[in-house]
């Protein structure tokens, strides 16, 4: 089972923080001292995952957190889209092939992976199950 939770480090820098993630080097941001660092890290993680999906790049497995790092999770919708994306990559199946399996137009599968399109969770779960996998939701 793969979770889309990654370890972030918050490094003090003058009047703010530099926010980084070892597993996703492109996930880098900064915050002012009075801003919520976790919220900024969540947005940074969301952007990195969405970018990798859009660019058809692999999503790395999360490393074990090191001392001083904080686990950050993306929004549930982003995690669900990432799970579908990973299931498609693992199965070696294209958007067109998944659309045929689901009996829908390929545009619908593209929308399921599109960060700018709100897809209902049951629809993503159905697509994941068509690939022989199961979408799990956890409460932390």
Structural shape = elongated
Spatially, the strands of the biggest sheet line up as 3-2-1-4
Strand content: 15-25%
CATH topology of the largest domain: Double Stranded RNA Binding Domain
Structural class: alpha+beta
* Regions with little confidence, pLDDT below 50 for 5+ residues: none
CA radius of gyration: 16 Å
CATH architect. name of the largest domain: 2-Layer Sandwich
How many domains?
2
Distance between the termini: 16 Å
Summarize model confidence as the mean pLDDT. Answer: 95
- Give the SSE string: EEEHEHHHH
How are the SSEs placed, and which strands pair?
Blueprint: E1 6-13, E2 16-21, E3 28-32, H1 37-54, E4 69-72, H2 76-91, H3 95-102, H4 106-113, H5 121-130
Antiparallel strand pairs: 1-2, 1-4, 2-3
Q: Concise description?
A:
The protein is α+β, with helices and mostly antiparallel strands and 140 residues long. Helix content is 43%, strand content 16%. It folds into two domains: 6-72, Double Stranded RNA Binding Domain (2-Layer Sandwich); 76-130, 434 Repressor (Amino-terminal Domain) (Orthogonal Bundle), CATH 1.10.260.
